[in-house]
């Protein structure tokens, strides 16, 4: 039988196991430190570090269209007006409501014309009376001239007869002007649409007293709809009439290509923005003034440009460049580029067709550095 272990023997065993474990930790730590030092100071280990892995794309010149940023605006019309009363009269008829369509020369408002009718009749009667008095005065003048030629009356009576004819002729002309004015006022009792339009708002109903200068009805025409787009002031120098405009009307899911017609000459002082206008020659039937629109302007079309991701182009204050792959090394090539939408750039100069352009945004890449093209991995 084995003798039972005493407390002193158990303590000795635990001490031995602890020393063995501590020795193992020291050995592992020393081996790891030795390995790291060898990697840092050994030339062979440095040469064994693999080159940066990069992705490349082939340079393929294609046609590229350069667009402006997207602009926002709304549909407007040049045919928008408020018809106001031109006389004071009672409204007899106002047949239209908001949203109704009215053709050119269609009835808008009809007012009481009794007062103007009586005024016309009064002026006509006055005209007849004055015509009769003038004719009588003219016959009297003719007699006075005959008597004066025979020295039967003094010259003063002849002058009075002449003055009477002249006065009546002036009164006739004055009354004729008043008669024309009365006829015009009579026409003012009926208001008609100056163009084909839709009613935006009516201000009077039958029975109302329309006062001269008071709005009667608001009209909006649809024959000359156009879009007005807001533009940051820095972009106004890029635009000119005649450029193509790609216009989208989100509410109608409708897109159309039109042309920039004119650039408004002044800026909005509050927003510091300009605006331009483009007509819609074939507007959708559901299009209405005030609808939101989006547009971008075609600034230029390049026949041969190389599209690359924007992060493939490096630059500083003096130059822009890309890296191309040449015999397993990165070669820096200065380039001329233009911005494109969707995070791309167009290379115009500095790269030849077929060159492989490094597009990996790795800041470790330098001119002449060995690199590994992952696309060449078998």
Keywords:
378 residues, alpha+beta, 10-stranded antiparallel beta sheet, 4-stranded antiparallel beta sheet, 4 helices, 25 strands, 35% strand
How do the helices and strands line up, and which of them pair or pack?
Blueprint: H1 7-41, H2 43-47, E1 53-54, E2 56-58, E3 62-67, E4 71-77, E5 80-84, E6 89-93, E7 101-102, E8 107-111, H3 114-149, H4 155-187, E9 190-192, E10 197-202, E11 209-210, E12 215-221, E13 225-232, E14 244-249, E15 254-259, E16 262-263, E17 273-279, E18 292-309, E19 314-315, E20 320-326, E21 329-334, E22 336-340, E23 344-349, E24 356-358, E25 372-373
Parallel strand pairs: 1-25
Antiparallel strand pairs: 2-24, 3-18, 4-13, 4-18, 5-12, 6-8, 6-11, 7-10, 8-9, 10-12, 13-17, 14-15, 14-18, 16-17, 18-23, 19-20, 20-21, 22-23
Helix pairs in contact: 3-4
Commentary on this structure:
The chain is of the alpha+beta class. It is built from 4 helices and 25 strands. The protein has helices at 7-41, 43-47, 114-149, 155-187, and strands at 53-54, 56-58, 62-67, 71-77, 80-84, 89-93, 101-102, 107-111, 190-192, 197-202, 209-210, 215-221, 225-232, 244-249, 254-259, 262-263, 273-279, 292-309, 314-315, 320-326, 329-334, 336-340, 344-349, 356-358, 372-373. The strands form 6 sheets. Strands 3, 4, 13, 14, 15, 16, 17, 18, 22 and 23 form a 10-stranded antiparallel β-sheet that branches. The chain has a 4-stranded antiparallel β-sheet with strand order 5-12-10-7, with no helix packed on it. α3 (114-149) runs antiparallel to α4 (155-187). The two termini are 70 Å apart.
């Amino acid at each position: 039988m084995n003798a039972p272990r005493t407390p002193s023997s158990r303590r000795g065993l635990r001490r031995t196991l602890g020393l063995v474990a501590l020795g193992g930790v020291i050995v592992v730590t020393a081996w790891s430190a030795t390995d790291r030092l060898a990697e840092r100071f050994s030339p062979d280990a440095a040469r064994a570090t693999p080159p940066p892995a990069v992705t490349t794309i082939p340079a393929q010149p294609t046609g590229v269209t350069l667009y402006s940023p997207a602009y926002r605006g709304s549909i407007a019309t040049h045919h928008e007006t408020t018809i106001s009363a031109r006389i004071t009269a009672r409204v007899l008829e106002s047949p239209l409501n908001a949203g109704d369509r009215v053709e050119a020369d269609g009835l808008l408002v009809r007012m009481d014309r009794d007062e103007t009718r009586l005024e016309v009749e009064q002026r006509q009667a006055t005209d007849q009376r004055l015509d009769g008095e003038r004719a009588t005065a003219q016959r009297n003048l003719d007699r006075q001239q005959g008597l004066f030629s025979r020295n039967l009356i003094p010259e003063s009576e002849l002058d009075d007869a002449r003055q009477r004819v002249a006065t009546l002729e002036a009164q006739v002309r004055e009354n004729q002007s008043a008669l024309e004015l009365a006829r015009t006022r009579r026409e003012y009792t009926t208001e008609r649409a100056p163009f084909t339009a839709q009613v935006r708002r009516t201000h009077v109903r039958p029975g109302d007293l329309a006062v001269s200068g008071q709005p009667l009805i608001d009209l909006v025409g649809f024959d000359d709809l156009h879009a007005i787009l807001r533009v940051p002031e820095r972009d106004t120098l890029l635009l000119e009439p005649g450029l193509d405009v790609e216009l989208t009307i989100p509410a109608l899911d409708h897109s159309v290509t039109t042309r920039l017609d004119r650039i408004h000459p002044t800026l909005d002082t509050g927003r510091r923005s300009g605006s331009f206008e483009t007509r819609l020659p074939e507007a959708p039937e559901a299009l209405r003034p005030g609808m939101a629109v989006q547009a971008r302007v075609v600034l230029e079309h390049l026949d041969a440009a190389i599209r690359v991701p924007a992060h493939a182009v490096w630059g500083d204050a003096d130059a822009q460049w890309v890296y191309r792959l040449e015999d397993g090394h990165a070669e820096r090539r200065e380039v001329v580029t233009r911005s494109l939408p969707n995070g791309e750039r167009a290379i115009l100069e500095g790269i030849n067709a077929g060159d492989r352009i490094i597009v990996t945004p790795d800041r470790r890449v330098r001119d002449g550095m060995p690199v590994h093209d992952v696309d060449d991995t078998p």
